[in-house]
Amino acid sequence: MPTNPQVLLWTPPNTEDVELLPVGKWWDAISAPTAVADRALELLGDRSGAVIQDDTYGKAYWLIGIDTSTASSWRMRGVRILTELADEGTLLGVPPASWRAEHKTYWRIPLGPNRYLTDTHHLVLALRQALDDILGPEPDGRQLCYHCHLPTDEPIPVEAEDSRNAVGKVTYACPPHAPLYKARRPRTLASAVAAEHEGRRPR
After folding, report:
1. Which helix (H) or strand (E) holds 34?
2. Which residues make Cβ contacts (< 8 Å) with residue 110, sequence separation at least 6?
3. Is the dihedral of CA 69, 72, 77, 82 positive or negative?
4. From CA 184, how far away is CA 139, in angstroms rounded?
5. What average pLDDT does the segment 72-76 reach?
6. Contact call for residues 139 and 155 (beta carbons, < 8 A)
7. CA Rg value for the chain
8. pLDDT tens profile 98-151
9. How confident is the model at residue 36 (pLDDT cuts 50, 70, 90)?
């Protein structure tokens, strides 16, 4: 179930605007690019808890339990764990509970009595499948980013050349630079994900 019925529902304290709230006080969070989140939500169905959508940065955020051990070992392309760090705080922009899609930041899946935290076991499985479906299988080993020319452990394919009905050369980017890529030819599904975020600052 998305939430434990014994846990009282938390609600955002600000009813007028987005408020930066500390991660690790009431919940931790998991972020994913919107295109990946779209697919993950399809896979999760009613097992998803509340979700914040941030259209300014092209990300969706699931709220999860604090210090969730399942999440601590995640390493997935473009997916980030937001948790309290020992030497600094982490903040998440949280909209008022009533905000919907008429705002840039809103509750894509609203908070409710049975819609709060998401079980990380279900979430990790859905995100892994969503990444394969949207970005394709993760390449073996590190790849060089086309933009910064540095190796990345989270290579995101942003373009693939067609070679006689087969995939030829693949261009990779690190997560911060994938949204900046502009395809020179018809886009693959993966490069369409990058194009979704063109003109938006990486976060």
Report:
1. helix 34-44
2. 50, 97, 100
3. positive
4. 22
5. 70
6. yes
7. 18
8. 999 999 999 999 998 889 999 999 999 999 999 999 887 777 778 888 889 888
9. very high
